[in-house]
Amino acid sequence: MGRLAKRKRDGISIPRFSWSSPPYEHVALPTTTSIRILELQPGEGTDIIACHLSTIESAGSPPYEAISYAWGRETDTRVINCENRKLRVTANLRDALWRIRDPVEVKFLWADAVCINQNDNEERGFQVRQMPSVYANAVRVLVWIDLPSSAFKDFEHLFDSGSVGPDLGNEDTAPVGLASRILNEHVAKLEVPGIRMEDLDPDTSVVASALCQLFDSPWFTRLWVVQEIGMAKSILAMIGDASIDFVDLIRFILRLERRTMLMDQLGLFIAGKSNVYTTFPARSKELNGEVDDDYDFLEMLEVTRNQKASDPRDYVYALLGHPSASVNGVPIVEPDYNKSPEELYFEVTMKILSQSKSLRILSAVHHVDGTLNGESSSWIPSWSRDVCVLSLGVYQDHYFDVEYDASAGLAAFCNLVEPGRSLDVRGFVLDVVEEYIETEELSHGESVVLKEVDELMSDILRFKTDSSASPEDKLAAVGQTLTAGFRNQAPTQFAAEFAAFRLYLADEAEKKGREMSDGLFPEGKEALHRIANGRSVDEIYWAASRFCTGRKVFCTKQGRSGGGLDDWGGVREADVHALVKFRAGLPGLDIQSQIQLLHL
Q: pTM, whole model, 2 decimals?
């Protein structure tokens, strides 16, 4: 076991701390494999945080815990005492240190804002290379989620003040298990088939409200935490004064995700959250059979696209600890904060094109106004967080076993054209877009919302499609278009769920005083009930509501229907000499110019 090297300042005695003390300055690390360990001094309550920093080689570090937290606003800072000098940290980190601090013993910790000199780009680069091992070598990762609202205090009361005390206990302590058992009881009530908001008992309503706040907390939006918890041996979530095993929390999310409609009604927008936190092998093994475990690096870039980072280069660097980020032991890129985001994205895109022999990465191109500068090649994904559209063409077998492959299994051809970095790809004309409809509209509050799904279905039925098809077959094609091929390998199951979905839409329309078109029930409602056979509509509801978002639905001259984004997802025609467009899963269509559909 390594010994901590106490920090010295050239043998000079350091005066006692006061508010007039000079600011703390990091001393350069001796090697590129050195790390700093934060020694949190004993204290209680809101006494000022006091700590020392020690330097050690990462391979010989003593036992320590690593903190995973959201930085919060960088302007909202507090002073802590670091070796009798003033060090500013964000308020959220100071609060985490308050929560973790022991009244008697020194705690050995690692926290990025303190242990890395954030003002030294070179140090940031080589420390980022070590981040995966820093979290993997920690005896435990402490996830700090501060929710000070009064509603969450009610939630904590349900655990009977489920704190585990100053030493935070261990994974098997009774209070941590108590929190999981109590949550399990309430989640089980939320899972009851057919349960409505008005059926929930008061305590379960409190839990549902508190979970809404929990999953809206900044920690759940932060990108770096994906790797931090993905590499951990053990994880304890500290939620205010309560504590819970993090893997138990993920299991609760997985269970609640299956009740999509109720979760939407409660404002619990958790769809896809479990995917983000289970993409690393350590977590997927713990949840064996419950989650996917074979994400490649392109899929990692896409599945984490709702996670935020203050530096756009971290959209890539924060994921370098994932196994897919290395090929034969060589990382796809090296962290370099002197490199521009545009150069980094170009390098990553070319590596993925070369390694995958596929054009799937073009499905991730979603530029919006103001996110693309004039010098950047528009076919290169910017990984902007301003777009909330599922890029289905990126994924391989992760959505209902549907394969979104415009190349139809054939090898794709592409060639970089210099100068100008345009991309040359090959294809042939498949069809031409003739008409389209919007899937979204402005609400009374001027926000963009999805149109009523039954109205969308009626509009699509008015497209000029195959006149020889039966009304039932036309309607099934509409359902497949809106859900991007949901259950297209299981037509009987799709028919049952689509029937149940239409009955649900009819009930919802009636509640709002609207009438659905009879054209949506060609079988008749009595027959529809028999076909539905009591099927759940949660999954098809999820597919229709998520896959339509941000897209247009179109019809081609030959009567095909599909979905895509406006304006090629922001791709300039000069940058790409041909581009794949087919079905709902791939990038957008320049509808106004009637862009030809191409098949590689």
A: 0.83
